[in-house]
Amino acid sequence: MNLLLAAALMLSWAPGSTAAQSMAQLVGSIVDQTGAPLPGVRVTIQGAAVRTVTTAAAGDFAFLDVREGDYEISAELTGFERQSRIVHVRAGEQVSVSFALR
Predict the structure, then answer these.
(1) Can you tell me the distance from the alpha carbon of 60 to that of 77, in angstroms, rounded to the nearest whole number?
(2) Shortest CA distance to 68 belongs to which of 93, 97, 44, 91?
(3) Nearest Cα to Cα of residue 50 among 63, 40, 59, 61
(4) Minimal CB count within 10 Å: which of 23, 61, 81, 101?
């Protein structure tokens, strides 16, 4: 009975552990051409799914729990030129991206 319980607990724990290891973080910051942080910038990642966040007062942003793969990340704010680039995200890593909008 104890062996069955131990096996069941191990099986229920393993998928969560594997899922956590397969996720990554994509973080960054956005400034203007003078180096001043830009709040309110719409940052979008497109890959298997599309996700969007808005930069905070310090111009920073974060996408947590990102699956491994290639993504197009773009930044846009009214009055500034939209910028984008392709980034590769690996499981368990934190990828940092920064933009200077003009």
Answers:
(1) 14
(2) 91
(3) 63
(4) 81
* Helix/strand number for the chain, H first, E second: 1, 7
Q: Is 20 helix (H, G, I), strand (E, B) or coil?
A: helix
Which has the minimum average pLDDT: 3-7, 28-32, 62-66, 83-87? 3-7
Full-model pTM: 0.78
Determine the Cα–Cα distance for residues 7 and 44; give it in Å rounded to an integer. 42
Three-state DSSP state, 35:
coil
Measured CA to CA, the distance from residue 58 to residue 40 in angstroms comes to 10
CA distance readout (Å), 26 to 34, 69, 93? 24, 11, 9
